[in-house]
Amino acid sequence: MFWIVNARRLKQYLIIFTAALFAIGIAWAERDNISIFTSGKNEPSAIYKVDTREKKLALTFDISWGEERTGPILDVLEKKGVKKATFFLSSPWSESHPELVKRIKDMGYEIGSHGHKHVNYSSLTDEEIQTQIGRAHEILKGLTGTAPSLIRTPNGDFDKRVLRIADKMGYTVVQWDTDSKDWMNPGTEQIVKNVVEKAHPGDIVLMHASDSCKQTHLALPAIIDQLQGKGYELVTVSELMAGTKVNTKEVQ
Length: 252
Known about the structure:
This protein has nine helices and ten strands.
């Protein structure tokens, strides 16, 4: 009888101990911004960063409207000799600015999709999500001659359905781990600080080349100089993902 009671207590202690370890793991993961939310095995997920010790990161630029900011940003990248970056282009903007799309392509930068209409995909039906991704796909493929395989959804919004549909259509959803917050126009120095202080190996950095972001091209030279000064190699998202463990966050 004594042994049975002790065995029961031991089982209770083990359950409590396991739960405590799990809680600690959650806290640790959240501290390091590591995904702990899973929606089941073999489910598609969004890419936020990659786990690597190599000092490589990807600068990414979203473009959904405007014609005044993209050129100056490309000028900075060219002047600084940055050969690799990833641009996520919305298809209506691309149709309206084929010369800028061509320049991005000719400079050798990776082009991903930023969808068609700038709406939250999680608010759409499955058919509407397919239509938005598919229409952007055909337009970007037609303009660049290459079918994109990466997509950053408008506003970074997605749910399980978006991930599954994008995956079936041959796309990987790309998010970011460092937000420059250039969309807030907080000042050049703050944008530089937002990127450089948080940048880490395997990082995906969010910036914008739309007209609403008025300070990105002013902050970009210092961002590039300081990141390279710390020994970082600037690569595309696809290169960052190749041969490394991808760090993802899956939705409930």
